[in-house]
Amino acid sequence: MHSTANPIIITRSPSLRAAYFAGFAVCAALMAYALYLQYVLDLEPCPLCMFQRVMVCAMGGVFLIAALHGPRRAGAWGYAGLQFVLGAAGIGLALRHLWIQSLPADQVPACGMGIGYMLETLPLGDVIMRTLAGSGECAKVDLVLGLSIPAWTLMLFVVLMVWSVVLAIRTRR
To answer: For residue 121, what are the CA distances in angstroms to 45, 105, 117, 127, 129?
Structure first.
């Protein structure tokens, strides 16, 4: 008697530590590309870009800590919650940046002090408020594969947040 049943294929999903490390690697790759844009292609980041970089680095740091920790379910949900907060902040920054880029030229805020100068001379709260207000340099649109850089970072923040939740769901006790 000949069986025509399909053989059972057993696949193994990557370990959770490797999956968390993959999230870290994505953030590290994004930061490497941002530094390439800045130092090789001479695209100077605006203050909102710098704040988005901080959020990417923070999310990457959480992914790396989770990879080293190898959390169980409660810890994985804690990391996912932290990633949600960081990602939401990043999304807010990217949306603000996209809004400034969409303004007509006559409504764009004037270029202000550079972020380095602001950090040296102003209290941190004032630096944050001035950065969120935006400036003329934030209105400049640089396209990568047809989308602006803040549009790409917006999508990345969403993907990283979803990835964190997926990992929390996959985590066993």
So the answer is: 19, 29, 6, 9, 14
| Residue 166 contacts residue 23 (beta carbons within 8 Å) | no
pLDDT surpasses 60 at 111: no
**37, 137 contact by CB (below 8 A):** no
Confidence band, pLDDT 50/70/90 cuts, at residue 30:
very high
Measured distance CA(40)–CA(64) in Å, rounded: 27
Residue 60 burial by CB count (10 A; 0-12/13-18/19+): exposed, middle or buried?
Answer: buried
Q: Is the dihedral of CA 141, 142, 148, 153 positive or negative?
A: negative
Phi, psi of 148 (to 5 degrees): -70, 160
Q: What is the pTM of this model?
A: 0.78
Q: Using the 8-state DSSP alphabet, how is residue 106 labeled? A: G
